[in-house]
Structures are given as C-alpha cells and as structure tokens.
Amino acid sequence: MNILLTRPLIDTENLMRELLIQGHKIIHLPTLQIINLDLPPIHLDKYFSLIFTSANSVRNLKVIGDKSKIICYCVGSITEKLARSKGFTNTVSAGGTAEALKNLIFNSIVPSKDKRLAYICGDQTSIDLDQELSKEGHKVDKIVNYKSKKISNINDANVKLIENYPPNLIFVYSLRSAESFIDITNNYSLAPMMTQSIVMCISNKIKNYFLSLGWKKIATFDPGNEIFEIEKKNECTRKF
Questions:
Q1: What is the DSSP letter of 6?
Q2: Rounded Cα distance, 48 and 163, in Å
Q3: Under a CB-based contact definition with an 8 Å cutoff, are residues 79 and 55 in contact?
Q4: 61-65, 138-142, 218-222 — which is least confidently predicted?
Q5: 237 confidence band (pLDDT: 50, 70, 90)
Q6: Which among 64, 69, 134, 171 is placed 20 to 30 Å from 109, CA to CA?
Q7: How far apart are CA 33 and CA 183, in angstroms?
Q8: How far apart, in Å, are the Cα atoms of 102 and each of 75, 109, 117, 119?
Q9: CATH class of this structure's domain 2-30+151-239
Q10: What are the boundaries of each domain within the chain?
Q11: For 126, which DSSP code?
Q12: What DSSP string describes 7-65?
C-alpha cells in the first residue's frame, strides 16, 4: 500500500522503518514544525503529578527534583515510553486521546488543595484540559513548553511521489496538522491525486473537519495501532 505519514520524522521514524520492511511505499509529508520554548526547569516538589498531552511535551521538558516520586499521566503509550526513557518511573497511559486522558485523571485523582497538577502541553490542544480539571476542583498549572508551526511548502520530490504513488491511507494526528495538510494539498493541487485515499484521524473532531471540506473516505484510529489499521485495510482491499 501507499501510505502518507504527516508526523515529524522524530515521531514516525520507527513506524516508517517497520512499514518499509513490510513492503509498503511511504510518503513522509510532515505538516508541523515543533519549536521548543526553552522554559526554565519545573520544580517537581511543587506538584502531585504531571500531565503529558504528547510526546513533544515530554521531549521539551526540563525538571528539577526526584522523578521517581511523581506520578505522570500520559496521553498514550508512545508518550509514556518516552517519559520512562527520561527517568519517570511512575507512569500511567490513557487510550491515546485527550478525552481518554481527561477521564483517566477524573477517575484517578481526588481533588485537593494539596494536590497541584502540572498540565504540560503545546500551544495548540484539542481540549482545554486545564479548564476541565479546574471545574472539578483540581488545582492546575498549565505549562506550554513548545509550539507548532504549520508547514505550507513541500519539495518537488514529495509532489512527484504523491503524483506517482497516490496514497491509499493518510494518517493525521491533530486538527492543526489537518489544517496544514489541507493548505498543502490546495497550494500544490494535490487533491485530485487523493480521491481514493482514506484519511485516518485520531479523533472525531479531525474527522468532522475533513467531512466539512467534502472528503468522503474518513476513519478514526488509536495512535500506536497504525500497523493494525493498515493490515485491516490491506485485507479488505485484497478481498475485492
């Protein structure tokens, strides 16, 4: 299958390698540039727990204190693995979406004035998790430690790849990434090459965005399950 991946290389390199081994054609079309805001270190002794909404929130983190004593709530398994590689040993993974992360925290932490939470995220989020938690009585500090910048230009090699190998599946991981992807397809007149593409979205919010623009073949998936989804779609294709 021809598969288009929109994440930055650092987030998708392992997946690309595995898909290439399986014989798939990969088109890497990053739609966002991640920029570290270079904040001062966070003092862990101020917080009961840390909340990570993405791998980038972990990757751009600087802390002071004992990492083993603080519990980390991570949006998904990839973010959790990165947190553990950074020395955090008490970690919990949600189901890969911000909504799942919110429900995990609601069911795990009893609000208390002594349990201050650090919500670490980028400048663009799918839900205002800090506000949702505050409504339930939690004490939350929102810490934005990176921002994302849309990529609107692509090189000629990627344009030719899409023209020669129209993607069967396109994986999109955020609404901002979806917006950037649409800008790219419009700027380079690529939409006609993608009429048979299935756009895989990590949330219904992203799915509805594509539907509102007239894209017909849209599905949702859980981050980390890309290979399973590809195998499932590949099997359906073979049947017909």
A1: -
A2: 51
A3: yes
A4: 218-222
A5: low
A6: 64
A7: 15
A8: 9, 11, 13, 11
A9: alpha beta
A10: 2-30+151-239, 39-148
A11: S
A12: S-HHHHHHHHHHHHHTT-EEEE---EEEEE--PPPEEGGG-SEEEESSHHHHHT--EES
User: Is 37 in contact with 147 (CB distance < 8 Å)?
Assistant: yes
Residue 72 pLDDT more than 70? yes
Cα angle 151, 152, 155; round to 5: 95
Q: Does 197 score more than 80 pLDDT?
A: yes
User: Is there a contact between 67 and 46 (Cβ–Cβ < 8 Å)?
Assistant: no
Could you tell me which of 65, 10, 64, 60 has the C-alpha nearest to residue 38? 60
Once rounded to an integer, what is the mean pLDDT over residues 58-74? 95
- Could you check whether 2-30+151-239 and 39-148 share the same CATH topology? yes
Phi and psi (nearest 5°) for 91?
Answer: -125, 150
Q: Extract the tokens encoding 35.
A: 């920029």
Q: Is 39-148 a domain of CATH 3.60.15.10? A: no
Position with higher pLDDT, 233 vs 207: 207
The residues, any chain, with a CB within 8 Å of residue 96's CB and separated by 6 or more, are: 75, 76, 77, 202, 222, 223, 224
Q: Measured over all CA atoms, what is the biggest interatomic distance in the chain, rounded to whole angstroms?
A: 59
Q: 118-140, pLDDT tens digit by residue?
A: 999 999 888 899 999 999 999 99
